[in-house]
Write a structure and sequence with these properties.
Elements (H helix, E strand, L loop, with lengths): L11 E7 L18 H7 L3 E7 L2 E2 L1 H10 L19 H7 L3 E6 L18 E4 L28 H5 L10 H15 L7 E7 L31 E2 L9 H31 L6 E6 L5 E2 L4 E3 L7 H4 L3 E4 L6 E8 H12 L13 H4 L10 E5 L4 E4 L3 E5 L9 E3 L25 E4 L6 E6 L18 E4 L15 H15 L4 H6 L4
Parallel strand pairs: 1-6, 1-8, 2-12, 3-13, 4-5, 4-6
Antiparallel strand pairs: 2-11, 7-10, 8-11, 9-10, 13-14, 14-15, 15-19, 16-18, 17-18
Helix pairs in contact: 1-6, 2-8, 5-6
Length: about 500
């Protein structure tokens, strides 16, 4: 292959994870709607992966893929690192690698995400984003605290404390990252830095000039909270003008955090860290902003907008190029584990990308699995996407976890609560583990987490090469039976629960 490997594999790694980063809106991937000059600047020196997909969804499950290397959407909807799992950071710390987390992601510090940060050597939490319970009252000296029609949220108490652009959580996170790279990174021969930046996730709240950059004629408070619904325009929840404003507000958040990312890239330049550090830019998932009249992350199949995500890797010694290898988030865990020479005890599902990064091979896998617990299970091979829906009443369905939790949302806890473990629960085993795990079967009438609830529209099958917009559903045609068999085999390959095969009609 044309790219020669480094003389010595890099012993430093930086992962820059931006939340809800839409691949199709980045200049490096052909986007022209919004300005992303620094992401494009990074892409100009990176390997640009064209077939990178989500695995477990949404936010915390995706981070479990990254930091534990095991798909968890087939076993649970949301939750912490389990007692039988070695996190990447625990492994690296034991191996003498300095690990650092810089983040403004509130879900990492809530029930269900509360132990993802504990094995880092150091962590830096920049407060005040979205659901972060940072302040107990709004800043009384700040007039005009915005109200956006969602009822009270913790952000309403925090927002008044952001006076200037540099006070917002995203800019503070990038500034703290640049500071650590400038003052601390040179003192560590081996390090892993994770920057878990919540932008451009909602609220799409930015100061001027960003707020009006893509919709200068908008009058009144900017619409920064998108609805989570399919058919918002059709149902009259949004009109066309409001839809344009929400999309423009996302673009403002994207461009603002891109600008602050530039400060991190400046330090990488000044310190010449590119020479001995692998730098990865990635995301957990995309965000629907009206594609197919879908908004937010509601209970729908994982269309390309949400599931086909960017992956950019700057590998020392490798020239920038396009990479068509099929990849998913658990592969990043496998890559970093091999890079640093550590091995987890739990069963993992990733494939190391080091052979691809070195230019030795073109592919390391022929399919990926993707989904939300309790929803459709997706098989994607880069050419075809098959989203298998439950057959019948979405049963049987169970949850495997020794850390019983789901995503808390202030104001609407009743929509996200699950039944407490009861007499139906029993001890089971996870693949590759002898540690007992609590398994709770669900029954009709049980509340399900927001992500697992909602109606189904049947199975979906799309030919991504001929129909990239996913407009022609081929489920029910002769092609489906072969894809169903492939999905059955893929689920058995990861030791998926028998519940999953049964509810999907694949037992």
């Amino acid at each position: 292959m044309e790219n020669a490997p480094s003389i010595r594999p890099p012993q430093r790694a930086i992962v820059l994870l931006l939340d809800s980063l839409n691949r199709h809106m980045l200049g490096a991937y052909g986007g022209r709607e919004f300005a992303t000059p620094n992401l494009d600047r990074f892409a100009a020196r990176a390997l640009r992966f064209t077939r990178h997909y989500t695995g477990s969804l949404p936010c915390i499950p995706a981070r479990h893929d990254l930091l534990c290397g095991a798909l968890d959407f087939l076993w649970k909807p949301w939750g912490s690192i389990e007692v039988w799992e070695d996190s990447l950071t625990a492994l690296l710390r034991s191996a003498g690698v300095t690990t650092k987390l810089v983040t403004d992601h509130p879900h990492l510090f809530e029930s269900g995400g509360e132990n993802f940060h504990v094995h880092f050597n150091a962590w830096d939490y920049q407060r005040g984003h979205e659901s972060d319970p940072w302040q107990t009252r709004p800043d009384p000296s700040w007039a005009g605290a915005p109200s956006f029609g969602r009822g009270w949220t913790p952000y309403d108490d925090s927002r008044g404390y952001f006076r200037d652009e540099a006070d917002f959580p995203g800019p503070r996170t990038m500034a703290a990252t640049a500071d650590w790279l400038d003052r601390h990174a040179p003192h560590h021969e081996r390090f892993f830095l994770l920057v878990d930046e919540f932008d451009p996730h909602e609220p799409f709240d930015t100061p001027e000039p960003w707020a009006s950059m893509y919709d200068p004629d908008w009058q009144g408070p900017h619409l920064i909270w998108p609805p989570y619904v399919r058919g918002a325009l059709k149902k009259g929840i949004l009109d066309e003008r409001q839809a344009r404003q929400i999309r423009a507000s996302y673009g403002a958040k994207l461009s603002m955090i891109d600008a602050w990312l530039g400060r991190v890239l400046d330090v990488l330049d000044r310190r010449a860290l590119w020479d001995d550090t692998v730098v990865i830019v990635c995301t957990d998932h995309g965000h629907y902003l009206g594609e197919k009249d879908v908004w937010g992350k509601p209970a729908v199949p994982v269309y390309q907008t949400l599931g086909h995500i960017p992956l950019l890797v700057a590998w020392p010694g490798a020239a920038a190029r396009e990479v068509d290898a099929l990849t998913t988030t658990v592969d990043l865990f496998a890559t970093l584990a091999e890079l640093f020479g550590v091995t987890p005890r739990q069963r993992t599902h990733g494939r190391s990308l080091l052979p691809v990064l070195r230019g030795d091979v073109e592919n390391v896998r022929d399919h990926v699995l993707c989904g939300v617990w309790g929803r459709e299970v997706h098989l994607i091979d880069g050419d075809v996407k098959y989203a298998r829906a439950p057959q019948g009443d979405n049963a049987p369905l169970s949850m495997w976890s020794n850390r019983w939790s789901t995503m808390p949302v202030p104001g609407v806890p009743e929509e996200l609560l699950m039944p407490r473990p009861d007499g139906r629960a029993f001890l089971d085993r996870m693949p590759g583990s002898a540690i007992p795990v609590l398994r709770q079967p669900f029954q009709p009438g049980d509340l399900l987490p927001f992500w697992g609830a909602g109606r189904f529209s049947g199975s979906h099958l799309y030919d991504l090469r001929e129909d990239p917009a996913e407009e022609r559903n081929l489920a029910g045609t002769a092609r489906e039976s072969a894809l169903a068999e492939r999905l059955r085999a893929a689920l058995r390959d990861v030791d998926a629960p028998a519940d999953q095969l049964e509810r999907l009609g694949l037992a």
